[in-house]
Amino acid sequence: MIKLVIFDLDGTLMNTLQDLADSANYMLEKHNFPTYTTDAYKYFVGNGMPKLIERIMPEVHAPKDLFDTCLKEFLDYYTIHMSDKTVPYPGMTELLKSLIERGIKIAVATNKVQEALPELFATFFPEITFDICLGQRPGIPVKPDPQVVFDILEATHCSAEETLYLGDTGVDICTAVAAGVQPIGVLWGYRPRSEMEAAGAKQFIDHPLDLLNLL
Question: What is the mean pLDDT of residues 83-104?
Fold first, then answer.
């Protein structure tokens, strides 16, 4: 019996890509670096914001002091603009409400910085109370390290066998597999099915409400 569903955030709960791309390109333009299309950012995001900046900065311009400056500029801009174009995926709010009505706990495990989470959830899911939401935290390794899932299991008093993990990337599937929880690949996000299959996903859903058929 499933007692807990853990959600990835970017590309799973919400489409945050345009705000991430706009914020990153703002920083790149400020330094006269090349910018990227929004679609390109589908393959830059997913491993935390420092890794995003590392991937988009020209290698020749990556001394640590400049990297730290660029990361701060990106984070400062994104903090202000992270809700400009972000939207929950269709059916997601209905799914979350249905899970709560069934007595199933809901949690979020993301590589987005922890400080960004309260505003995003208050803005886009004001009627939803998550049991726990964990992002990137100092001293805690980012996904695909499974520590974030272990922390959620401990906080919710649920076992791995009672838990589903929804994500849209190979990083998410690897995280779930490493934690011993059941991965569910979502097909509305940023990465293709083939990437998730290669990481070990065997079950997929095309729409958030399809999850209810698996419970």
Answer: 98
Question: How far apart, in whole angstroms, are the C-alpha atoms of residue 137 and residue 159?
Answer: 23
Distances (CA, A) of 154 to 8, 147, 203: 18, 11, 25
Both tokens of 49, joined, read: 């914001």
pTM comes to 0.94
CB 161 within 8 A of CB 138: no
CATH of 4-15+87-214, one of 3.40.440.10, 2.60.40.1600, 3.40.50.1000, 3.40.710.10: 3.40.50.1000
Average pLDDT over all residues of the chain? 95
Cα 145 from Cα 156, distance rounded (Å): 19
Distance separating alpha carbons of residues 208 and 96, to the nearest angstrom:
9
Q: From CA 2, how far away is CA 19, in angstroms rounded?
A: 34
Task: Count H helices and E strands in the chain, helices first.
Answer: 8, 8
Q: In terms of C-beta density within 10 A (0-12 exposed, 13-18 middle, 19 or more buried), how is residue 151 classed?
A: middle
Cα separation, 182 vs 185, whole angstroms: 10
CB 199 within 8 A of CB 174: yes
Distance CA 58, CA 34 (A): 8
